[in-house]
């Protein structure tokens, strides 16, 4: 195991996802410890730690990609929480998801909006429609 990559990845995972990311890794550990290590080392130690994009920009891209997939709803929920954690507003999250309707279709977009809505409702942050919309 590359301990430098793992340590860097674990630090970035905590910065982005907080406790939620650690819970995902803890759930994977008994089932597939190698996959848990790969997520930390590669996903966060290599990819999320790269220069060039802020964590905010990375989470916008991640929410968009997971929304477009349409079938990664548990991972989308984790990253909606992460998006909030790095300063993305609930209205911005929903705008990112709405943008996916043009590229991923309405079924994937509806699934993503409902999943994100669950996370936002749990956090007491569900948009009411009266917030200022992005220009």
From TrEMBL:
SUPFAM superfamilies: AhpD-like. It comes from the Bacteria. Pfam families: CMD. InterPro entries: 4CMD/NDH-1_regulator (IPR052512), AhpD-like (IPR029032), CMD-like (IPR003779). GO terms for molecular function: peroxiredoxin activity. This is Carboxymuconolactone decarboxylase-like domain-containing protein. It comes from Desulfocurvibacter africanus PCS. Residues 33-116 form the Carboxymuconolactone decarboxylase-like domain.
């Amino acid at each position: 195991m590359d301990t430098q990559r793992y340590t860097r990845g674990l630090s970035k995972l905590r910065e982005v996802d907080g406790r939620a990311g650690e819970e995902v890794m803890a759930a994977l550990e008994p089932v597939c410890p190698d996959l848990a290590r790969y997520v930390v080392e590669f996903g966060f130690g290599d990819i999320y730690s790269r220069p060039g994009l802020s964590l905010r920009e990375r989470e916008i891209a991640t929410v968009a990609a997971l929304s477009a997939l349409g079938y990664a709803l548990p991972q989308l929920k984790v990253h909606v929480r992460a998006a909030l954690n790095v300063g993305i507003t609930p209205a911005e999250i929903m705008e990112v998801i709405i943008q996916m309707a043009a590229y991923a279709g309405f079924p994937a977009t509806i699934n993503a909006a409902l999943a994100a809505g669950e996370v936002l409702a749990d956090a007491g942050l569900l948009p009411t429609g009266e917030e200022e919309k992005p220009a």
